[in-house]
Amino acid sequence: MTDRLPPLHDAHDERGAKFTDFGGWQMPVEFDSIRTEHAAVRESVGVFDVSHMGEIEVSGPDATELLNRLTTNDVRALDPGDSQYAAITNEDGVMLDDTVVYRLPDGTAAGEGAASLADLDATRDGDLDAPSGDPAYLFVPNAGHDGQMYDRWTAHRDEWGLDATVANATDDWAMLAVQGPDAADALDEATPGDRVVGLSKFEAAAAAVAGTESWVARTGYTGEDGFEVMCPADAAESVWAAFADAPLEAQPCGLGARDTLRTEMGYLLSGQDFDPESEPRTPYEARIGFVVELDTEFVGRDALEAQKEEGVDEKFVGVRLRERGVPRNGYAVTDGDLTRVGKLTSGTMSPTLDEPIGLGYLHESYADAGTEVSVVVRGDEKRAEVVVPPFLDR
């Protein structure tokens, strides 16, 4: 895949960022050091460029039905300004991706670029619940999945004869994540008069961030309080500078710290902790059964209903090593006597705990917290203990 560059690539390069390929995007992996950036998010505030995430806009008379048939949660529960976490599954209940779905103000037109921020601006007038047209949504696929999800949505729309407009707006948006105990203070400074700090978890609204009309949600991927800011791509540098430069001076953070932070919380990484080809997993195996609403008729529903009744053979858990070594993706987990009971999909040295931790799938009989297991590190069995994520109390 040809490398895609986020709108902030040149700004990151000028700051001396180190880059890595992620989902076909050239993204900063670190600016200073992973430990410095990780600590800033846990202790104060950091800002991430997450413009590699996709943005798919869906609107029209049948937008709600289309979203409900293609995601596992129930979007009918969303009022304008609400959002929810969901999985996207195939007919077998295997996860193709996970996503956050945002309900936009009714009447917002898909395909006009950045979800027609002129329409989103209506949310700042406190009129979120007033019907003003067809329902509209924005959902966020993971890096490199925007084209796949656009094709999936349009193909099923046409197959089912639904009246909905679907637009891949990934190139229209930039997306920043402002995360940490001081994130609310930073947003308050950057959005004078808009009071987005009053948003509850998983609520969103339009706001002028550093003078740029943006869509701001109280969501994140770190376990800390935080906000994700979606703004027009051509305004990304001014919005980024508002947080990363004086007077706010949030720590610029790369994907390295994003990975250690999410691992400490036990959050799934698409393409690694689950993948339809290399790591086919269902929401119940991945311990996100709470996003499965079996009262809706989505693709994969029947398979998941059967699995819920029968139970799963393996569950997603954490492990904490009790000996030296760093767990990594693909490492075998054993019963301590060379019998394999599972494998890891993620692993790192936790900067917060200063302990080696990992995530992966174990046979359900070994998946209880406190169970003693071993992780095979370079041929040696290292003693470990099962942890039901998160590793941190947040």
What is the mean predicted local confidence, pLDDT?
A: 94
Largest sheet: 6 strands, mixed
Strand order of the largest sheet: 10-11-12-9-3-13
SS summary, helix count: 9
Radius of gyration over all CA atoms, rounded = 21 Å
H/E series: HEEHEEHEEHEHEEHEEEHEHHEEEEEE
Strand content: 25-35%
Helix content: 10-25%
Envelope shape: globular
**Number of beta-strand segments:** 19
Poorly predicted runs are: 126-131
Question: How would you classify the quaternary structure?
Answer: single chain
N/C terminus separation: 37 Å
Class computed from helices, strands and strand pairing: alpha+beta
What key attributes describe this structure?
394 residues; alpha+beta; six-stranded mixed sheet; six-stranded antiparallel barrel
3D structure, described in words:
This protein is of the alpha+beta class and 394 residues long. It contains nine helices and 19 strands. A hairpin with a 5-residue loop joins strand 15 (332-334) and strand 16 (340-350). The model is unreliable at 126-131 (pLDDT under 50).
